[in-house]
DNA sequence: AGCCATGCACCG
DNA sequence: CGGTGCATGGCT
């Protein structure tokens, strides 16, 4: 069981007015990418559906997608992972810029629990190891 | 690398 | 017609 946390940007929750689909999943850490499932890079824009259960046991189906036209289309510029279909959830919990989205894996592949952590809360737990990537961190 | 943005399609 | 998501480019 592993937990990854993403601190939400303004664009993530849609407060910038953009209707971009989804939060970013940095491809820098293979473990983070593998955490959400395996997407075949040999295909163009492969995706997979994941299931996330919140604290009220409500299930949210999210789309994990790898925009990779840089690898397949001449002149393509995309090479990044995203998770989409989060707007309803963000609305329901009144997510704000700076809040953190907490994903915890389960025994089932592609099944996770999610919860929103308000930014006001101080960081405790010294045994947590902060990992590398901007916006995301892993919790052991 | 990560966040910001947008033209178009689709749907209620 | 307004909101949402897709797939893409742009800016720092």
Tell me what the structure shows.
The chain is globular and about 45 Å long. The longest helix has 6 residues, at 30-35. It has one domain (3-139): Beta Barrel (At1g16640 B3 domain), CATH 2.40.330. 14% of the residues lie in helices and 33% in strands. The protein is an alpha+beta fold and 140 residues long. The protein starts with a strand and ends with a strand. 18% of the residues are buried. The chain contains 4 helices and 8 strands; from the N terminus they run E-H-E-H-E-E-H-E-H-E-E-E. It binds a DNA duplex (12 and 12 nucleotides) through residues 9-12, 14, 16-22, 24, 26-28, 45, 63, 65, 67, 69, 76-78, 80, 84-85, 87-88, 133-135.
State the CATH class. Answer: Mainly Beta
What's the helical proportion of residues? 10-25%
Number of domains: 1
Number of strands: 8
CATH superfamily: DNA-binding pseudobarrel domain
Question: Spans of 5+ residues with little confidence (pLDDT < 50)?
Answer: 121-132
Rg for CA atoms: 15 Å
Put simply, the count of helices is 4
CATH fold label: At1g16640 B3 domain
Structural class: alpha+beta
What is the arithmetic mean of pLDDT? 87
